[in-house]
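[stage:ingest] chain + small molecule (adenine)
[stage:ingest] validated
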Amino acid sequence: MHIDIISAVPDLMVSPFSHSIIKRAVESNLVEINLINLRDYATNKQKQIDDYAFGGGAGMVLLIEPIAACIDALKKKRVYDEIIYMSPDGDMLDQKMCNQMSLYKNILILCGHYKGIDERVREHLITKEVSIGNYVLSGGELAAAVMCDAVIRLIPGVLNDETSALYDSYQDNLIAPPVYSRPATFNGWEVPPVLLSGHTAKIEQWRHEQSVERTKNRRPELYHKQP
Ligand code: ADE
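[stage:predict] done
[stage:export] tokens:
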């Protein structure tokens, strides 16, 4: 998968892609992440990428010209499955959307200032808008990092044990069961005995029951989506 990310502050996204699972995915060429500085596409001498809004009001607006120039240049190199704008009023990111995106070959992501981006970009150049929750971040960068992390770990080969993504919370609309490790007793707090029994079928059964109970208690709206 190839992911291009356009941002006015691309450095903000270096760290999220430089550690652990995502770093290994990049090193194994399972994903290629290209951070693009919008300022490199500024069309005037001052390298300006934002300006005041027509009609007045607080907050700067990202200009359409550098964004259009940048997207145009990128589209000459590859065909994108989606051109995504990170926005608090986009479609809500969930596991189903991540699963779909994990099948894409090329994704272009545009990060904006929360106050705005010229509406004509959204109308004419963007194919999908995504929100990571009902709250406003200062920009789309952290949202883009969250979305990419959730998608990249689903690409086959990224996780060591491929089945582990299948048992994540939210796959099949069930929350993941609790997990424990050594020691079996800490402060008098015991690990559920079934997990120490070595009886695989019973352990699977217990985990499933825990998932169902947790989903009922913590995410009843998901439980009602069970087939
Ligand atoms: N940009 C600012 N807030 C955001 C949010 N909640 N989701 C996606 N992009 C955003």
